[in-house]
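#onboarding

Welcome to the new folks! Below is a worked example of what a typical request in this channel looks like: someone posts a single protein sequence, and someone else replies with the predicted structure as tokens. Don't worry about understanding the tokens yet, we'll cover that in week two.

Example request:
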Amino acid sequence: MPSPRKIEIIPIPGMPLVKPGDDVAALIWKTAKKQRIRLEDGDIIVVAQVVISKAEGSVVRLKSVKPSAMAEIVAERIQKPVGMAEIILQEAKSIVRFRRGHLITQTRHGLICANSGVDLSNVSGGDAVATLPRDPDASARKLREQLMKLSGKKLAVIITDTFGRPFRMGQVNVAIGVAGLRPIHDRKGEKDLFGYTLKVKEIAVADELASAGELLMGEAAEALPVVVIRGYPYQESEDAGAGELVRPAKYDLFI
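Example response:
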């Protein structure tokens, strides 16, 4: 894969607040046109998960939740509303760690993250939470198809969320949904500068692109939920997805 000469990260400001049932592709297209931003072949559209979840209706009002006894315990320990604790447990396939006020779970998607990816921020001011999309890769494929139809351009899409990382402080954006590009660049078998054959070298390019997008998107993802990354020569794919980034349990050394 050739090295890029220049990579641009282009914000698409002015997106309206997304509501259940909204057509996210149409909103992106209309907003980009209003801002005089033209999509080009090879552009990567990076979209914050929260707008996808809201459009798909993956939002739960806390008052509608009947908490379990376990949720009462969890809520007290993680200092979250009890309704949110119940939703976290419902969204979890398993609990990976629960200590020191932190709950790390594995979601049904296989993602390892805090609180099953359930989030209060950028939803409605604290009375509702957003859960992760049911199938982030399917959401990315649908959004890509719609945007390519609207623009007439060959595009890729990455849906992102903010995750912490073991052994590292702080959080970064990662790819939870991918369409149109290979999320991992496998460099095994290539030669380094001195002719050594690389044996273990897999670059998580989708995560790197997601984090690059966050440099502009920031934590207020609902205010600037979409950016365009231009100039990165990714490997095209019609069937790859972010699921490839999830490490199989048999290869995990820490859980």
